[in-house]
Amino acid sequence: MQKLQQTKKYILDSNVYGEMVVDKELQELRENFEMLRKVVLVYGINSIIRKELRNTPKKIKVESKNLRNYLLMLYDNFTKGHEIKIFSDTESIVNNYHKTYRELGGSKSKDEIYKDFVIVASASKNGMDIIVSQDEKSMRTENAIRAYKIVNDANKIMTPEFIEYKRFKDILRSQPNKLISGSNKFWVFLIFLNLFYKLIKINLFPFHILLKTSSNINIFR
To answer: Considering its fold, how many domains does the chain have in total?
Structure first.
């Protein structure tokens, strides 16, 4: 399981919110995210990602919930007003992405892949660390990722890492971070007291006794 060691900035592609809606583990995902919100910073692009979600037909329902409203609620909850800018030179970067992508054997027209390229260009320019996307036929194709790296290196900007939704969930399940961020802080406190006791040889009853009687509990489960 991946251990989070520092704050990282994420962009969730619109298809990821679609995955969340049908995910039976969504409640756990949201709870884990709330515990890690200070180290997992999720950003959005209202003019592209939120707009795509907003274009969901109004009458579609999933488990009695209005799909459009549910998607927008998830987007707003995860991004919490964190929105990245689309810079003035984004169009130039997108054009270079597409030119390089086609040279590397990519088959999609600029219109077909334009929004994906704008998301990647904006994420790169704004210093995003990770893009989460399920799009293996467009944004995350090998030729596209090679094109991003070539163009971004030429522009001296960082190319984000690309991961799928499942890996994002695994990151949020990271046990070391949940231990520090959640209710298990109490056990961390007890461990500290036990170490303190051993160092200065004082009796910290009842904490030391509690640790002994609870030794069969797996603190890190």
So the answer is: 2
